[in-house]
Design a protein that fits this description.
about 280 residues, mainly alpha, about 85% helix
C-alpha cells in the first residue's frame, strides 16, 4: 500500500470523526436548533451512503472476490460463490452494527435527538445532564469505531467513493456533537468541557481506522478486501436506515428528509459518472 493512500484515507477519517466538534461549536452560538437544515443534511447523508453502498461498494466487493474464486472454481462457478459471499458479508456488517446499537441503552443512544433549546431549559449545573452527556459521548464513540473503519477502507480503495462518504459521515456527526456538548456545557457551566468531550468522542473514528490498518492490513488480500468492503456497505446502509433517516424526520418535516435523501443520491450518482 502506498503511503499516499494511507494518509488520504486516514485524513478523510479524521475529518469525518472530528466533525463532532463542528456540532459542539454550533451549539455554543445557537439559541435554537436549525431543524430544517439538519433534516435536509441528514437525509442528504443517508442518500449518499445508501446509493454508493448498493451501486458502487457492493459491486467492487464482488469484483474483488471474483478475482479469487474465479481462479479456484472457474469463471461461472466463481462468480456465483463471490456473489453469495458478498451478500453474506453485507448482512454480517448489518448484524455487527445492529448488535452494537442494541447494546447501548436507549437513554444514552445517540439516535435520540438533542435540541439546544430543550437542554437549555433544564437549567445549569445539573448532574443529570453531565451523566447524560458522558454516556452519550461513550455511545457515540462506540458507534464511531465501525464508521471510522468504513471511511478508512473506502479511502484506501477509491477516492471518488471515499470523499462523498467522508462528507456524509461528517454531516451525520454534527448533531452527535451537539448531543454531547450541550448537556455537558449546561450541566457543568463550562462550554470548554462540552467542546473537549464532544471533540474526543469523534476521535473514535481515526482510532478505528488505525486499528483496521494495524490489525487487518497486514493480511489484506482480494478476499479480505471483498469481505471488508461488503461489510462496510452493510454498516452504512444500516446507519442510514436506522439512524440518519429517522433522525432527519424527527428534526424536520417528513418531506425535508425525503428531499435531502433524493438529492444525496442524485449528487452521488453524478459524482460517480464524472469520475468514470
Amino acid at each position: 500500500m502506498e503511503n499516499g493512500n494511507f494518509w488520504l484515507a486516514f485524513g478523510l477519517t479524521v475529518f469525518a470523526g472530528l466533525s463532532t466538534g463542528i456540532g459542539s461549536a454550533l451549539a455554543f452560538f445557537a439559541k435554537g436548533t436549525n431543524t430544517r437544515f439538519l433534516s435536509l443534511s441528514l437525509g442528504f447523508s443517508a442518500g449518499v451512503m445508501v446509493y454508493v453502498s448498493f451501486v458502487e461498494i457492493l459491486q467492487k466487493a464482488r469484483e474483488s472476490l471474483i478475482v479469487e474464486y474465479a481462479g479456484r472454481f472457474g469463471m461461472d462457478h466463481g462468480e456465483k460463490v463471490a456473489s453469495w459471499y458478498t451478500v453474506l458479508a453485507f448482512f454480517t456488517g448489518i448484524l455487527i452494527i445492529a448488535v452494537i446499537d442494541k447494546l447501548i441503552p436507549s437513554l444514552e443512544n445517540p439516535h435520540e435527538i438533542r435540541r439546544v433549546e430543550d437542554v437549555i431549559r433544564t437549567g445549569k449545573k445539573d448532574p443529570r445532564l453531565v451523566r447524560m452527556g458522558l454516556f452519550t459521548a461513550l455511545a457515540i464513540a462506540i458507534h464511531n469505531f465501525p464508521e471510522g473503519i468504513a471511511t478508512f477502507i473506502a479511502g484506501l480503495s477509491d477516492t471518488s467513493i471515499a470523499i462523498p462518504i467522508a462528507v456524509a459521515i461528517a454531516i451525520h456527526n454534527i448533531p452527535e456533537g451537539i448531543a454531547v456538548s450541550v448537556p455537558i456545557s449546561y450541566g457543568t457551566g463550562s462550554k470548554k468541557r462540552g467542546f473537549i468531550l464532544s471533540f474526543l468522542s469523534g476521535l473514535a473514528e481515526p482510532v478505528g481506522a488505525l486499528l483496521a490498518y494495524f490489525i487487518l492490513m497486514p493480511f489484506l488480500s482480494p478476499v479480505l478486501f471483498g469481505f471488508l468492503f461488503a461489510g462496510v456497505a452493510g454498516i452504512m446502509v444500516f446507519i442510514s436506515i436506522d439512524e440518519l433517516l429517522p433522525t432527519a424526520r424527527e428534526y424536520g418535516l417528513h418531506h425535508h428528509s425525503v428531499y435531502g435523501f433524493v438529492a444525496g443520491m442524485a449528487i452521488m450518482a453524478l459524482s460517480l459518472l464524472f469520475f468514470i
